[in-house]
Amino acid sequence: MSTRDLIDNIKTGDAQKSNNTFNSIMKDKILGALDNHKQEVASKMYGASNDTPAVDEPPAVETEGEEATDVNV
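The structure corresponding to this sequence follows.
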């Protein structure tokens, strides 16, 4: 079904066909949007995205007689 079918049904005054065509168009749009949202959620849940998390560096450890230096300061 297409919007052209919907417009044609409205022009002819066929309320039942117009209603069915409208419902079919909306169903297709909703299912498409739902599928896209499912894919987005799944990629976020299972880490399938291209974003890589930042790696934290371990803290500097002081040894006896030496001072730890932080090169990031």
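Helices lie at 3-12, 15-45.
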